[in-house]
Amino acid sequence: MNTQGKNKIFRSLRSRIVLLILSVGIIPAVIIVSVLLFGYKNESVSARETEVLSQAKVLADQISNSTYLTDTSLETMNTEIMQMSNIFDGRIMVIDSNFRVIQDTYDIEAGKFIISEEVIRCFKGEEITKHDTRNNYIEMTIAIVDTITRENVGILLVSSSTDSIMTAYGNMVRKAEFLGIFFLIILILVSIFFSKALVAPFQRISQTLDGYQVGFFGEEIKVLDYTETESISKAFNAMMGRMKVVDDSRQEFVSNVSHELKTPITSMKVLADSLLSMEDVSVELYKEFMQDIVEEIDRENKIITDLLALVRMDKSAATLNISTVNINQLLELILKRVRPIADKKKIELVFESYRPVSVEVDEIKMMQALMNLIENAVKYNVENGWVNVTLNSDHKYFYIEIADSGIGIPADQVEHIFERFYRVDKSHSSKITGNGLGLAIARNAILMHRGAIKVRSKEGQGTTFNVRIPLNYVV
Ligand SMILES: Nc1ncnc2c1ncn2[C@@H]1O[C@H](COP(=O)(O)OP(=O)(O)OP(=O)(O)O)[C@@H](O)[C@H]1O
Ligand SMILES: [Mg+2]
User: Fold this and answer.
1) Which of 244, 265, 398, 454 has the most CB atoms lying inside 10 A of its own CB?
2) 18-31 pLDDT tens trace
3) Ligand 1 test: best mutation among 298, 417, 427, 430, most atoms within 8 Å of CB?
4) Is 437 close to ligand 1, i.e. is its CB under 6 Å away?
5) Pairing state of beta strands 386-393 and 348-353?
6) CATH of the domain spanning 318-470, picked from 1.10.3720.10, 2.40.160.210, 3.30.565.10, 1.10.10.410
7) Which residues pair with 103 in a beta bridge?
8) Among the four given CATH numbers 3.30.110.40, 2.60.40.60, 3.30.450.20, 2.60.40.10, the one describing domain 3-168
9) Ligand closest to the CA atom of residue 463
10) What is the pTM assigned to this prediction?
């Protein structure tokens, strides 16, 4: 994916984080504030209702204790009623048992008759309180009860404006709106900041990876902001480390190959040049030089064959050509081929088998591996030495041990002998020719069969290779 595409992804990730923070912050805030405001309004209205009701009841008592229902000229009562209607910011009407309005603080209905539903119901003993939310007032009917007869002798019709409550409520709503907008702006800023901070480490990783894509293999990724980015960084660096090792060893291999391939060619060129520069060369000398050239060609040929064998094994285990192989026979055959070389140095070559072993392996590769090991045991041996090859098996594996009484391998070099082109110190095996590929081939072949190879050696005393391979090849 290109950088633009990635930036788009990161942008959408950031906006999703912003939206998440906003919704988490705003929705609960709106709900809480709305509930509080609505609660405040209802509480205020019902507090006002209780207050009006209790005061009106006191007034109703005073009226019933006085002669006001028959004589509205009672000055103290009138002042009391006027005062109370002022306090309630409303209107008080006193109605007698004949439904006649005997007092109206608004002076509109005095002397008229009111036969409304509320009034009738109140005479029947049902006091009614109503809140008109459209016109913002509370209206209630209170019975004036005769103190002695307990009869309903009149009604107080009280209305009180809730305008002040509604104004206070409106103010609060405006304040809440203002605070809400302020809070929203802060929340937007904070969420933008957080979304950037949250996404930034991942963006840094992505940028470094982009750098790798265009071929910049410089520094390691180091984004330690979160555990996740830390483990991504670590995993990536480890992977790059492995790739670098592979790359280094590939380069080393290529340069080794070129060098090894050039050596015989250089020798051939020197031999041919010197033949050409000589005059009147005898046939014997020609033959001798030609013999040397043939040896160099053989050497070149062996290097190429070995390299091809190695490359083929590097590919994959799918190239194994598995068949049932009698290992006893295979070892006998190898020993037969190696015996002439052993005889030259008077080396005793012994094969010991505990039981016949028939296994599923790639015969050619197994042959190459064992041949290289046994060849080495003879090659790096001393006059009158010995080589012991032992074969054994259990229900799962077969085991081959190749022990020799040879020159051994210095302890500090043992770990390198399986590397391609590695040969122990030139002085150590200077007279013995070789390319340093035999053990690399042997080890690869054994590993392809899910086997293992181990070596023990003591300089000047001898070397023992132990090979363990499963009896049946399992993919
Ligand atoms: N049995 C052994 N005793 C002592 N040294 C050994 C033995 N086997 C291997 N080595 C050392 O390990 C080195 C690597 O062995 P390897 O078989 O890979 O290469 P080589 O024998 O030099 O060449 P070739 O490719 O012809 O086998 C040898 O050069 C030798 O120094
Ligand atoms: Mg060898």
Assistant:
1) 398
2) 999 999 989 999 99
3) 417
4) yes
5) parallel
6) 3.30.565.10
7) 94
8) 3.30.450.20
9) 1
10) 0.57
Please state the atom number of ligand 1 nearest to the C-alpha of residue 424.
Answer: 31
Closest ligand 1 atom number to CA of residue 441: 18
Q: Kindly report each contact of residues 46-51 with a partner whose C-beta sits within 8 Å and lies 24 or more positions away, as own/partner.
A: 48/138, 48/160, 48/162, 48/165, 49/129, 49/131, 49/138, 49/140
By the 8 A CB rule, do 299 and 335 touch? Answer: no
Query: Mean pLDDT over residues 70-78, rounded?
Result: 89
Q: Is the CB of 221 under 6 A from ligand 1?
A: no
Q: How many angstroms is it from 373 CA to the middle of ligand 2?
A: 7
Contact (CB, 8 A) for 414 and 437: no
Reference 194, options 20, 436, 441, 376; nearest CA is 20
**Model pLDDT for residues 393-406, shown as the tens digit of each residue:** 999 999 999 999 99
CA of 312 from ligand 2 middle (Å) equals 18
Token representation of residue 351: 């094969």
What number of other Cβ atoms are within 10 A of residue 333's Cβ?
Answer: 13
Residue nearest to atom 28 of ligand 1 (CA): 423
